[in-house]
Amino acid sequence: MTTVIGVDVGGTFTDLVLHDAATGEIRVAKRPTTPAAPERGVLAAVDAAVPPDLLARCRHFVHGTTVGLNALLERRGATVGLITTAGFRDVLEIRRGDRDDPYDLFWTPPPPLVPRRLRLEVTERVAADGSVVRDLEPEDVLRAAEVFAAEGVDAVAIVLVNSYANAAHETRAAELLARAGFAGPVSLSHEVSGEYREYERTCTTVVDAFVRHRMGPYLHDLDRELRTRGFAGDLLVTRSGGGALTLAEAAARPFETILSGPVAGAAATARLAASLGPSLGIGTAVAADVGGTSFDTALVEDGRLPLLYQGEVVGLPLQSPWVDVRSVGAGGGSVAYADAGGLLRVGPRSAGADPGPACYGRGGTEPTVTDAALHLGMIPRGHISGGIELSEDAAARALAPLAGPTGIDGVDAVAVGVIRIAAAHMAQAVRGVTVERGVDPRGAAVVAFGGAGPVFGCLLADELDVDVVVVPPNAGNFSAVGLVQADVVRSAARTLVRPLDDAALPVIERLAETLFERLAQPEAVREVDLDLRHRGQEHTLTIPVRPAEDDVAAVSARFSEAYHRAFGHTLPDPLEVVTVRATSRVVLSDARPLVPAPPSGEGGAGRGTTRLWSFRRESFAEAPVVRREDLRGVTEGPLLVVEPTATTYVDAGFAVETHESGSLVITRKDRR
């Protein structure tokens, strides 16, 4: 029985969920994020919801953070030096032959994280099979160390060609660098990524060195502050590919945490769909996480997350396990404005946590999605979580100036336009994770969460022609629920290009065992995947395998099924192995609830009525405001369901009821 705290830092709010294993109690807290020092918002949430005696009993503190992501977005990280094989100095600028936007004639790639003067070559060469073609020249490494010392380099990335096949030269270069007096962190490409593709591996290693300068100190500072408050357990950080890392691993491999925040909500959705799918008849779910800054979405099929093995942030590829979460700048704080042509636009720029939407009364003056929702009655008047008092007058004043340049008639129409545009942006992102994968979203259920997710549930249902919306318990903090449910996960990969035949299976099994020994989790559940392709092709599909049990026919059949699902046809060409992937998973506690307990206590304004806009009727109506715990039976919209950290908007033509798990289920009653 393990007591766990999960804290998710968003762009506007920091969310906390605590599961007390002794009593089964769920505690939640929501506090404004402090962008300049994110740990202050984390500690404020802890102080608000976790008394010292309970904090002392917590075994795990699981943290989802955007510190690494923000370092990349802001280009505020370490001054990085790069040591690479002679002839490969400019790999970061040559990139690939494609363009991020093929239709933008003026598109230019983002500048490399390492300027050319800090990209230094050394004489050495290893072949793709691991054989040494030319020995490493020590003097080249020592000269590089002198340049780094003169330039004030904070961290060094060492990326030598084909080092995934033979790491001896990289290891030797790191030893020489330390002997020359360099005391900063060093990222070795064979430790960061055991895969081929020099550009992607170089970029991943450089990103690791770049963000380590901020991630390590931040995590250690947070750990120290928690321990002064009595915490004696383990601090864990969620991975971009799901699961969590220990503090030491996260500080040593920060590139694995770049998207740790958005993934937590997707993981919670997968567990919810797996546990409720049979009773609700849901096989496919779409996570719809609407926060203050962004809308994050992912497709969940059969309770499984879509896992990729290479992602991209701000044009930089990363060779790391990566849950396919799509994000757009359409959150509660997204700013509405009129463009040069007089069209109403929403996002991606956000008012963030400071100053926040105009209605927060904290100095913000620009109109946002939250201001529009408040004006239309979609958010109850008065206080919201985080101790914020909402001002309807401030919201109306911010929205009013948009009527003139856009030609829209009045504040009401402006607010309706803002909400509809935001919902359209969200729906387009959902199509990106469904239609682009060959999945019809009309057969899925929308799982709406985040502070503003339940506000947009019915709007998304209409945009996507979906019949069912599920609002989980503690919806406003549901991403933090995903942190509470996290397991400790480690993964490693090694490129192994060879034909898939009977002789390959023993080699794959031995390599997988080597990778598991490196992961050093003896009591873990082990998973092996292969990147496979038809011979002559470039791209791969990742297929789960059981090396000791599967034969070539079974693996080939599994690949053909996945290939047909992805591309609509199959090919007779022989298969080729490209990469062997090993994942080990340690379950922290079997006592953690897959679906958390429903919220309790005052939720917003409580009972009563409010003036609420119906998008289906295109008019205002007096609608009931019901506390979530007071909802009984099937209740038809329009109405608001309020709880401590979120509000659920139910439009006309929809009905809501409480599922036995505590989730709200909204179903369509008629089509427009």
From TrEMBL:
InterPro entries per record: ATPase_NBD, Hydant_A_N, Hydantoinase_A, Oxoprolinase-like
Gene Ontology BP annotations: glutathione metabolic process
Pfam families: Hydant_A_N, Hydantoinase_A
Record domain Hydantoinase A/oxoprolinase: where: 201-490
GO cellular component: cytosol
Location of the Hydantoinase/oxoprolinase N-terminal domain: 5-179
SUPFAM superfamilies, alphabetized: Actin-like ATPase domain
Single GO term (MF): 5-oxoprolinase (ATP-hydrolyzing) activity
Source organism superkingdom: Bacteria
Name by which UniProt lists this protein: Hydantoinase/oxoprolinase family protein
UniProt source species: Microbispora triticiradicis
Record lineage: Bacteria, Bacillati, Actinomycetota, Actinomycetes, Streptosporangiales
